[in-house]
Write the structure tokens for this entry.
Amino acid sequence: MNNPDLTTPGPIHHDQHHYERVDFVTRLVNFIAVTLPILGLTAAIILLWGVAFNWVYLMILGVMYVLTGLGITVGYHRYFTHRSFKTSAPVAATLAALGSMAVEGPILQWAAVHRSHHQHSDHDDDPHSPHTHGAGVWGVLKGFWHAHMGWLFRSKTRGLARYVPDLRRERLTRWMSRLFPLWVFLGLVIPAALGGVLTLSWTGVLLGFIWGGLVRIFLVHHITWSVNSVCHIWGSRAFRSHDHSRNNPIFGVLAFGEGWHNNHHAFPTSARHGLRWWQLDISYLVIRAMAVFGLVSEIRIPTPERIAAKRLT
């Protein structure tokens, strides 16, 4: 492979100056669209506290969010899609199951779409770019909707299998991908069971299912989709890349390090997305912790020389 940063064919190169500025209206629309659902959920939690929400359900929601979110960031993204480190079959299966519980699609489909995104980022064949839908407020709204979740309702892109020939050759990956419905089912049953056990009530089963299952899926989806939308519109650019990818500190935290998106597009196979000491990257910290216990090895990180060579002046 000619480009050492990608697990897909090399990117299409374009004039970098085209990607340096995003207008204020675009950023404002993006900010409102992303924050309103989170504010609404926060208000619901406050209003329902002591009625249909308490510390038990907050714990279930938090634990399920962290586990399934890391299943996406560490498992689906950094391991299966970009091969940022190596691990054993049991660990890979665990990451695959946790990622599947996030209900973002089977591994093979998720990885293929993401690799396609990297090759065509912010151009016509990008499956979820916010920048290919015209100018003006209407174009911004269309672009944001498409990048955030609208692309999920479009016809499936043909030929995605060509992006994951390596994964399709792996029996474990094929098996875990085929069992996607089972992992989704378990991702809903587990929080329901926890709610029932911790409260010794059927009401606890229902509320565990709602908060640790449905609401948790909503949160994981919204944060993941925001990397597609927000992090291609709003934030800073530290490195040269062939797209609009940006570093956004809010989603650097909420998405466990995925929000350092310009860093990631500059060095796609790096296990570390937060390349500066102050860029919190929880997923990378988890990977490093796993390495301490011998669960992962051969963690890929760009050298200081390669980082310096791509840094924008």
